[in-house]
TrEMBL record:
Full protein name: Response regulatory domain-containing protein
GO biological process: phosphorelay signal transduction system
Top-level taxonomic group: Bacteria
Ranges of the TPR repeats in the UniProt entry: 452-485
Alphabetical keyword list: Phosphoprotein, TPR repeat
Length: 545
């Protein structure tokens, strides 16, 4: 009796199924249960790679994929790759099958939104009930999903509006899809109305999130950030809200707060690689190198079997480890330096890309220099010069990183000449010019940068409070770390000129001002401080005459 088709034969018989599990007995058992439900087209595979290859060449209506697939990719990686490569249509169903119920697994898998979960052990009645409901929904909404697959969003919207009175049981899905479609088309007014209509009837977290997304797009940052904070308080496991809140805080110009939000999110759901990468980038920009290195470490580890794996992640991890170990001689710094070299070695074996060896060698050179291994660093630098000379064109990011290494080894003139050439080549690209300017101002490790910046802030505070002696002392101490920093030199000039108005040692102070100006003699016109430099230079000339 168990092998006879159930009344659901019409639902199952027309669909193609793919079962992905590394245990043969389970695959065979699932096939038997599906056949007894009326399914006919059933393919069995043991591993993730086979599953992805099968979906690349065959249409699949329902994927039943185990989370644990042995060595290599797991079910989350399969879903991530199928979604990324668009190998599953919107009308296809993906069910995660698992015996594991750890929070990390569930949260990680949920990030990629499977259509459902099946928990082992599975019996025929459970399988049929769960699949029947999903297949009924699939069939009812098939015309809409077909139009979305074709990227015909206006027609999909029209189909949603027509379906609302006819399919009241799927109203939630239809309204959510409608809001998403309006947003994708840039019709923010209709998207906002859709979410407001839902929220007027019932408080649903997806509608609140959608409304906040529209508010951010409309630059209503404060309202969006407040609403997202409230949403997270009510639903602390709603990971999309953390991502959107971080985005909102960044747009408000509060990157440190955005970083804290992503740190909190990573604690809740540590297996989301793209969020770890965002956290690493944000922490790096905030000069929080310890957090950045740990987030890059997680990004690299999670990327091992991910479609989003990238050599840049390895380079970034090695760079942050180099920054942490630079100039330190303890065991921890030595371990960080060794880890950086090991990460670069793994990267070289894992990726075959033009120019990757050069990028790797540039970071290695800084690692050796940071541990006072000057002989190894200089030998590597000779090899780097040969590689650079053989290139027709040096990209901006590669050139800037090479200049950073030249500064680290004391070849300042060579570094400045290289940056000057890059500034000419990329004169129309403000972001690149900003990076060049930052390196010219602060060609030192991050610890020294932080110290110089703290002293600069102390100097500004002292100047604003009228304590010119303390201000001058702070700026001079900062300039001992970064002598060519444009803003610091100009800050000190301003303080000394102010002091010269109240002292008999005017000539001595003006002499110090001229020394600061001499340091900035080659300041490029594109530099943010250039106009201020010219203005103070003229003012100083007036004082001299």
């Amino acid at each position: 009796m168990t092998d006879s088709p159930s009344p659901g034969i019409n639902r199952f018989g027309k669909l193609s199924f793919l079962i992905v599990d590394d245990f043969e007995n389970f695959r065979l058992s699932m096939r038997q249960m599906l056949r007894s439900c009326g399914a006919d087209k059933i393919e069995l595979v043991a591993h993730a790679t086979q599953a992805i290859q099968y979906c690349a060449y065959n249409h699949v209506d329902v994927v039943l994929c185990d989370y644990n697939l042995g060595e290599g990719k797991n079910g989350q990686h399969v879903l991530e790759e199928l979604r990324h490569k668009k190998l599953l249509k919107r009308s296809s169903l993906f069910l995660m099958v698992t015996a594991e119920t750890s929070k990390e697994m569930v949260m990680g898998a949920r990030e990629y939104q499977p259509d459902g979960y099946l928990t082992k052990p599975i019996n025929r009645a459970m399988l049929e009930k769960r699949l029947s409901a999903l297949i009924d929904q699939r069939n009812a909404l098939l015309p809409i999903n077909r139009e979305i697959d074709r990227e015909n969003y206006p027609e999909a919207i029209s189909q949603c509006l027509q379906a609302l009175p006819r399919q009241p049981r799927y109203k939630t899905w239809l309204m959510k899809t409608l809001g998403d479609l309006y947003f994708q088309l840039g019709d923010l007014a209709h998207a906002l109305k859709t979410y407001d209509d839902v929220l007027a009837q019932r408080e649903l977290s997806w509608a609140r999130l959608g409304r906040c997304r529209v508010l951010l797009a409309n630059r209503n940052y404060d309202e969006a950030v407040d609403a997202l904070r409230q949403l997270i308080e009510k639903h602390p496991d709603y990971m999309e809200a953390y991502d959107l809140l971080a985005e909102g805080l960044e747009k408000q110009g509060r990157p440190a707060r955005a970083q804290k939000v992503l740190e909190q999110a990573a604690e809740h759901s540590p297996n989301a690689m793209l969020r770890q990468r965002h956290l690493a980038e944000l922490a790096g920009a905030n000069q929080d190198i310890a957090i950045a290195s740990e987030a890059w470490r997680q990004t690299v580890a999670l990327g091992t079997h991910s479609i989003h794996d990238n050599s840049r992640h390895y380079l970034s991890l090695a760079h942050t480890l180099s920054e942490l170990s630079e100039g330190e001689t303890g065991e921890e710094a030595a371990a960080q330096a060794n880890e950086a070299l090991a990460v670069l070695s793994r990267m070289e074996k894992r990726f075959e890309e033009d120019g990757l060896q050069l990028r790797s060698d540039i970071v290695k050179c800084r690692v050796h220099a940071g541990q006072n291994r000057t002989k190894e660093a200089e030998a590597l630098l000779d090899s780097i010069r040969n590689q650079v000379d053989s290139q027709d064109h040096l990209s901006a990011d590669l050139g800037i990183d090479y200049a950073r290494t030249l500064f680290r080894l004391g070849h300042d003139d060579e570094a400045k000449a290289l940056l000057g050439k890059l500034a000419e080549d990329y004169a129309d690209e403000p972001e690149i010019l900003q990076q060049i300017e930052n390196l010219l101002d602060e060609p030192v490790g991050f610890r020294q940068k932080l110290k110089a910046r703290t002293l600069n802030r102390d100097g500004i505070k002292a100047f604003e409070s009228g304590d010119l002696t303390a201000a001058a002392a702070a700026f001079q101490e900062a300039l001992a770390i970064v002598p060519d920093h444009a803003a610091l030199n100009l800050n000190l000039i301003q303080v000394l000129m102010k002091e010269s108005e109240k002292t008999t040692e005017r000539a001595k102070l003006i002499e110090q001002c001229l020394a600061c100006l001499d340091r900035l003699e080659g300041l490029p016109e594109q530099h943010r401080q250039y106009r201020r430099y010219i203005a103070l230079k003229k003012k100083l000339e007036g004082l001299q005459s």
